Amino acid sequence: MKFAAVFLALVWLPGCFSWSWTREEIELPIIEESLAQLEYGASLDECLEQLGAPLYLWEYRKTGIALAWGSLSRRDLGLSVSVPISDQASGSINYNHIDNDIQGVVLVFDEDYRLRWIRRGFLSDLAQETRGLAAVVDD
Amino acid sequence: MNRILWPLVIALLLPGCWIARTQTNIPLTPSQLEGVASGSTTATEVVELLGAPSEVVQLGKRSAYRYQHVMSKGISVWLGIVFLQNKDTQSDRVWIWFDENDVVSHVGASFEADRAEYSLPWSDRE
Q1: Which of B2, B52, B70, B74 is placed for a possible disulfide with B24 were both Cys, Cβ 3.0 to 4.6 Å?
Q2: What's the whole-model pTM score?
Q3: Predicted ipTM of the assembly
Q4: In which residue ranges of chain B is pLDDT below 50?
Q5: Is A32 an 8 Å CB contact of chain B?
Q6: What is the pLDDT of residue B11?
Q7: Distance between CA atoms of A74 and A105, rounded to whole angstroms?
């Protein structure tokens, strides 16, 4: 009888009650020591050598360029009773558009491809700031 | 009775575990870039070596090509009322910049797709 109860619980309980632990990681965070070695005026080659290939690249004010590096680590621990009470999101990355949750750094270069400034934050926000194009950011 | 129920319980739990791996494009390797030299290789030669890029970005009169291979590895475990899931996505990326004459000016590369891991949500990256 006890086993029958366990069996029925295993069959029916997940339909109305569950406990979840999920994690999603996309790309590796930039190495802070590498970023710290870059000085304003550094060449594009020096930056690529330190940070590797960027995730995104776009034109900045017609003559310059902006390069973005970033990563995402999304964790969720939650209970669900009939309807989910935890805020779960399905993570994904589209390398043609920027996910709203990816954080990182944007390096802006002038027309001679010399580093002019560095900014940190959510890449979607930084992209809008430097491109002024909301359409390139995924909702 | 137990002989019947325990196999049923096990049979119920086992199908709730799965492993997934997805890839986008073929892997990139450093050796593929040996034929790409700044100041001499043209865009046509780059395409002959690496194929069509994943993305072309126009930068005024200049341009840049992105080549990318993406690897995702995931594990999901459903044990009765407990659901565990982990997904890790890493990529190989190569950006190649061209000058006004479509000659390579800069190359940036990262090869991290192999670092995508199968793990559980609490595991630390190796």
Answers
A1: B70
A2: 0.82
A3: 0.85
A4: none
A5: no
A6: 74
A7: 18
CATH number (3.30.1450.10, 3.60.20.10, 3.30.450.20, 3.60.60.10) of A16-136 reads: 3.30.1450.10
Residues 93-112 of B with CB under 8 A from A: 93-95, 97, 105-110, 112
| Contact between chains at A25 and B87 (C-beta distance less than 8 A) | yes
| Amino acid A88: pLDDT | 53
For position A136, what pLDDT does the model report? 43
Neighbour-count burial of A10, counting CB atoms closer than 10 A to its CB (0-12 exposed, 13-18 middle, 19+ buried):
middle
Quick one: how many helices (H) and strands (E) in chain B? Answer: 2, 5
Q: How high is the pLDDT of residue B13?
A: 67
Cα B40 to Cα B98: distance, rounded to the nearest angstrom: 10
Integer distance in angstroms from the first to the last C-alpha of chain B?
45
- Bridge partners (DSSP) of residue B82 are A19, B79
Task: Mark which residues 92-131 of A lie under 8 Å from B by CB.
Answer: 93, 95-96, 113
Residues 6+ apart with CB under 8 A from B46: B36, B65, B96, B104
Q: Write out pLDDT tens, residues A57-70.
A: 999 988 899 999 99
Sketch out chain B's domains with CATH numbers: 17-115 (3.30.1450)
Q: Do A55 and B93 touch (CB under 8 A)?
A: yes
